[in-house]
Amino acid sequence: MSNARKVRAYTNIALIKYWGKRDDALILPTSSSLSLTLDAFYTETAVSFDASCEKDTFYLNDKIQDEAATLKVSRFLNLFRETAGLKTPATIRSTNYVPTAAGLASSASGMAALAGAANLATGLNLSPQELSIFARQGSGSATRSVYGGFVEWQKGTSSADSYAVKVDDADWDIGMVVVVVNKKQKELSSREGMKQTVTTSPFYSGWVESTAVDLVNIKKAIRDQDFEQVGEITESNGMKMHGTMLGANPPISYWEPDSVVAMQLVRQLRKQGIPCYFTMDAGPNVKVLCRLSDSQKIKTAFLNYFNEEQLIISGPGSDLKEVSL
Ligand code: 2P0
């Protein structure tokens, strides 16, 4: 592991969702998306090339991984090896830092950290923009995890211009309370779920049209630091994504009864004058966008219905970075 250097990438939660690809192989999205990077959830990864090894070896949380998981990582590393003119096998050590097995281990921080570590190990010296393009080819949401704060993934016209840009540092009292409804692995992967939605949901064209409008509006609201407006657009965009999924055949729903409980609670808190807004992804967990200064109050209200370990407060995360071994 002599040449191993470790990179940390934070996960991100989309406020304007990515749900559908126009190119499956290159992972080019049908629409642009926008997220908030979170500091409570991240992945740290080190890659070292070693000519004395026969094949790639992948450790996740100190456990050696099976062939299928290793193959996914190997394929992604091949992008870097091809660019750097290398054929050497690698050892990959990755750790997911997710509070108390929250079930939020995410391909976003995972693939972004792997891209960052591969960049260092190959000596390619890629810019953050190039890194974002590489990360995208591992997993769409990883495109955005190269940066902290509010981040837009511009859908672009080709692989060369489909990357993330930072919109804002989100350093104006922004946070999230993540409500862990269920930490089990989801039954239908995002990849399959979005494919099924694109090909069968009659609402899909409406989703693509309206998400473009939401993106313009949320960027203005972020510029104006208009928190309520950011929250309203976030909540509406997330629900539209889930509505579009319900229109798929067979219908797709990631919700559980407690997801609905959490959303109701957010509405109640809002009525009581606390500005907070929910969003959900391809799973039953609910993410509550709020003022970081209100997050403890919101967590306390949720403790009437959920356990301490189901409620995780997070502030905005930072750019992908090298950390000491
Ligand atoms: C997002 N999600 O924008 C959306 C909203 C989930 C719901 O990106 O196939 O794991 O690897 O590109 O990135 C999850 O999808 O899918 C996701 P791939 P990914 O965050």
Could you characterize what this model shows?
By secondary structure, this protein is of the alpha+beta class. It folds into two domains: 5-171, Ribosomal Protein S5, domain 2, CATH 3.30.230; 175-314, Alpha-Beta Plaits, CATH 3.30.70. The chain has eight helices and 14 strands. The chain has helices at residues 67-84, 107-122, 128-136, 190-200, 204-223, 227-246, 257-271, 295-302; strands spanning 5-16, 21-23, 28-29, 33-49, 57-60, 63-64, 90-97, 150-153, 164-168, 175-179, 276-280, 286-290, 311-314, 321-323. Strands 1, 4, 5, 6, 7, 8, 9 and 14 form an eight-stranded mixed β-sheet that branches. A hairpin with a 4-residue loop joins strand 2 and strand 3. It is globular, with a radius of gyration of 19 Å. The mean pLDDT is 95.
Task: List strands and helices in order, with pairings.
Elements: E1 5-16, E2 21-23, E3 28-29, E4 33-49, E5 57-60, E6 63-64, H1 67-84, E7 90-97, H2 107-122, H3 128-136, E8 150-153, E9 164-168, E10 175-179, H4 190-200, H5 204-223, H6 227-246, H7 257-271, E11 276-280, E12 286-290, H8 295-302, E13 311-314, E14 321-323
Parallel strand pairs: 5-7
Antiparallel strand pairs: 1-4, 1-14, 2-3, 4-7, 4-8, 5-6, 8-9, 10-12, 10-13, 11-12
Helix pairs in contact: 1-2, 2-3, 5-6
Bound molecules: ligand 2P0.
Structure at a glance:
Residues 9-164 form the Diphosphomevalonate decarboxylase-like N-terminal domain. The protein has helices at 67-84, 107-122, 128-136, 190-200, 204-223, 227-246, 257-271, 295-302; strands at 5-16, 21-23, 28-29, 33-49, 57-60, 63-64, 90-97, 150-153, 164-168, 175-179, 276-280, 286-290, 311-314, 321-323. The protein is of the alpha+beta class.
